[in-house]
Write a structure and sequence with these properties.
199 residues, alpha+beta, Immunoglobulin-like, five-stranded antiparallel sheet, 9 strands, 24% strand, globular
Length: 199
């Protein structure tokens, strides 16, 4: 996998730096172009690696499930969980890679008690976070959020709380649900079971 990652990044740098072949470049200019291409391309290549490990390579120890399928883990993460660099230790996760090429996807959030923090972080392939569904952003009230890719122009179905547009066709979502203490794990599982990801 590391070899594929390096080949993809090198190809991106060569492709982007090749855009300026009409004129002669100095070594300093070529170095600057390579740096800018690396900075531009690195987040997407690294994010693709995470997508590959989580949703494509079924033999990966980090595999979570197919696209548009929410995978919940009712435990705290440990140093053995290595795909994400610094996972939280007090917010059990649900994760999915979302494919918006065919149609939008609807995320359903249940009512969550006022004192419990939750967050759905939505990350596009550029690693931008265009929106959050969370205690802070939308409140602990139930809702249905339609996630739409850049080409979608359909009608919004009834009952949708909000439409959230994205500039990439793939995105990664991380649902975090606060765990107060070890005896609270069953309540967290109940909330996780109420999260929905549907076409």
């Amino acid at each position: 996998m590391k070899k594929v990652y390096l080949v993809a990044l090198t190809s991106l740098i060569i492709m982007l730096s090749g855009c300026a072949t009409e004129q002669k470049l100095t070594a300093k200019e070529a170095t600057q172009i390579a740096k800018e291409a690396y900075i531009y391309g690195f987040p997407m290549v690294l994010n693709y690696k995470t997508m590959y490990d989580y949703a494509v390579d079924t033999k990966s120890p980090e595999y979570k499930g197919d696209f548009n399928t929410l995978a919940c883990v009712a435990r705290v993460f440990t140093p053995e969980d290595k795909t994400i660099v610094t996972p939280n230790s007090d917010t059990p996760y649900c994760m999915t890679w979302v494919d918006l090429r065919t149609e939008p996807v609807v995320f359903t959030i249940p009512e969550i008690e006022k004192e419990r923090f939750y967050e759905v972080q939505l990350i596009d392939l550029y690693t931008h976070n265009p929106a959050y569904i969370s205690t802070v952003a939308t409140g602990n009230v139930p809702g249905k959020y339609l996630l739409a890719g850049p080409d979608w122009k359909g009608e919004v179905p009834k009952g949708i709380t909000k439409v959230i547009p994205f500039e990439t066709q793939f995105l990664f979502s991380i649902h975090r649900t606060q765990l107060f203490n070890p005896s609270d794990l069953d309540k967290v599982k109940k909330i996780q079971n109420a999260y929905r990801v549907e076409p």
